[in-house]
Structures are given as structure tokens and as C-alpha cells.
Design brief:
Blueprint lengths: L22 H13 L3 H12 L2 E2 H8 L3 H13 L3 E6 L2 E6 L3 H17 L4
Helix pairs in contact: 2-4, 2-5, 3-4
Length: about 120
Amino acid sequence: MHSAPLPHDHGELAHIPERIPSVEDFATVADIFKQLGDASRVRIFWLLCHCEACVTNLAALVGMSSPAVSHHLRQLKSSGLITSRRDGKEVYYRAADTKQAQLLHHMIEKAVAIACPNE
């Protein structure tokens, strides 16, 4: 990673340069957080962490049009946060069975609990 000596050697950063993830790793993380930068997408992702659903049912659950939900689903799927399966003419979506998706689901639930405590 960073092989040149630091301009000011104070000692506390000596072990850090070897442990810094790559720029590409940070870009991947930023892309995932971009997906969750939209409240509707977060809501759809959260729902898909709890159930498998088709576009029509998701649209009804979140009060959006099917094309709008489809747009969000394409973005979530391209980021690897959700998966889909076809059954006849219907396509069903659910959260991906990955550590990333599980961590983000947990993070969303914790953030909601902190920001919106039940009274």
C-alpha cells in the first residue's frame, strides 16, 4: 500500500500503512452505502430481509408504483444485496444470503431502534 515514509513520524501510524484496504475495497463499500442512501431502497431491502416478494406485492407494501419498485430492485440486485428467482411468469426477490446483506440488515434495524425508539 503506502511504502514511502510518512512526512512526520510520530510512531502511532507506523503499523497502519500495511493494513489499509485498497482503494477498490473502499469503492465497493461506498457503492453499497450509496444503495442505502435512498429511504425507499432501504425500506425495500429491509422488507426483503424478512420475506420473499414479487414486484407487485412490494409495490403495494411500500405504496409505490411497480416501475419505481423495479428501478430500486435493479439497483439492489446490481449491488449484490438481493437475489431473484423466476417461478413461471413471476419473479420473486429476497435479500442475498451474504455476510454483507446480513450486516446491513442488522445495521438498519439497530439504526431504526436508536433513531425511532418505541414510546
